[in-house]
Amino acid sequence: MPPIGIYIHIPFCKRKCHYCDFYSITNLKEIPNYINYLLLEIQRRSLSFFEQSSIKTNTIDTIFIGGGTPSLINPKYIEKILSEIDKYFDLSSDAEITLECNPAASDAKSFSDYAFLGINRISIGVQSFLDDELRFLQRLHSTSEAMATIETARKYFDNLSIDLIFGLPGQTFANINKSLSQAIELDLPHISYYALIYEEGTPLHNDLLEGKILPIADEQSAEYYLQIGDTLGSKGYEHYEISNYARLGYRCRHNIKYWTCSETLAFGASAVGMINDFRYKNVSDVSRYFALLNNGNLPDELCEKLTFEERLTEFVFLSLRSLGLNFKDFSERFGVDLFALLNNEIELLVASNLATFENKTLKLTPKGYYICDEITLRLLKKIEKANVQNIR
């Protein structure tokens, strides 16, 4: 049984960015209470899974502490979280343990503490190396602070990742290239480069609806995306997922678990886990999270067993957006000869330079990545038409 991964959500930020739709709050006084209840959930949920034999192994090889801004909390709380996990799970000797941080919340002293506690991968939310763009994104840090944070982090961590964003209103590739060139010059082992998305319900989306900002055209966004990929590829970065680029040996192992539909436990408000084809999601409200745990319950907002169709759909979508759809793996999971169903579509995708097909794996090219949803929908319609559940 492959090792599982664990995600921990720390939903605290000094200020919520106007484009962000992840669950977070700014009431930092709740941190001590939150940690106590988080430890309680780790205990209660872990014991529940083991009692029900839902978990086939207690070995874990990835931990991802995300948010929010986990670096806001005192390292002693990180120590408590890791110690609580250690009570119920065996951590593999080569485990990847990631902590997210923001330059405005980072403290040079904390990096050494994190490294001492076993954190071995740091992900920094830089977003841009241009101060004007940082102000538009309402980030609290400056370019110089981002640079200082990276330089301090690399004293303690070899495995270092940053997030960047492209596609801001009015943005030119010249500006994108300034951030891109800076990241490359720093020789970072991992770069996540996301397109700006106007998530419904965010202040940024409201600004869009009110006509205060004008998004760049889809054609422009596609051009930028391909240029970013070409530039990073020419510098030795592997484009291994729609928005992720890594030097050899530095893929994010935890995120790959999501993209390969592997089993993951999740703890904390709004966290989502997947075990034994069951998906659960915790409530996205700290007060409700506290109340449910205080009353002896688990803080579930939903818990559902995925249907055959849901598992198949997710496997196709997540595989295509990352390392590729392996037809041998698909056959072992779902009992279907996918090549026989999709032979014509494969030929069209390869001929259009949207995908490659090698070693029984359909992998999208950067051009294909950009229209991943469209391609996935096309393939799923073909699979659905064949009524695969009845021909297994």
Write the layout of secondary structure elements.
Layout: E1 4-10, H1 31-51, E2 59-67, H2 75-88, E3 90-101, H3 108-117, E4 121-127, H4 131-136, H5 143-153, E5 159-166, H6 173-185, E6 190-195, H7 203-209, H8 218-234, E7 238-241, E8 244-246, H9 253-259, E9 264-267, E10 272-275, E11 278-282, H10 286-294, E12 300-305, H11 308-320, E13 325-326, H12 327-334, H13 338-351, E14 355-358, E15 361-364, H14 366-370, H15 372-385
Parallel strand pairs: 1-2, 1-9, 2-3, 3-4, 4-5, 5-6
Antiparallel strand pairs: 6-8, 7-8, 10-11, 11-12, 13-15, 14-15
Helix pairs in contact: 1-2, 1-10, 2-3, 6-8, 11-15
Name a few traits of the molecule.
alpha/beta; 15 strands; nine-stranded mixed beta sheet; 2 domains; pyruvate-formate lyase- activating enzyme; Arc Repressor Mutant, subunit A; three-stranded antiparallel beta sheet; 392 residues
Number of strands: 15
CATH class category of the largest domain: Alpha Beta
> How many domains make up the 3D coordinates?
2
Q: Would you tell me the structural class of the helices and strands?
A: alpha/beta
What do you see in this structure?
This protein has 392 residues and is α/β, with parallel strands linked by helices. The chain has two domains: 4-258, tm_1862 like domain (pyruvate-formate lyase- activating enzyme, Alpha-Beta Horseshoe), CATH 3.80.30.20; 308-390, Orthogonal Bundle (Arc Repressor Mutant, subunit A). It is 43% helix and 22% strand. It is built from 15 helices and 15 strands. The chain has helices at 31-51, 75-88, 108-117, 131-136, 143-153, 173-185, 203-209, 218-234, 253-259, 286-294, 308-320, 327-334, 338-351, 366-370, 372-385, and strands at 4-10, 59-67, 90-101, 121-127, 159-166, 190-195, 238-241, 244-246, 264-267, 272-275, 278-282, 300-305, 325-326, 355-358, 361-364. The strands form three sheets. It has a nine-stranded mixed beta sheet, with helices on both faces. It has a three-stranded antiparallel beta sheet with strand order 10-11-12, with no helix packed on it. The chain has a three-stranded antiparallel beta sheet with strand order 13-15-14. Strand 5, helix 6 (173-185) and strand 6 form a beta-alpha-beta unit. Helix 6 runs parallel beside helix 8 (218-234) and helix 11 packs antiparallel against helix 15 (372-385).
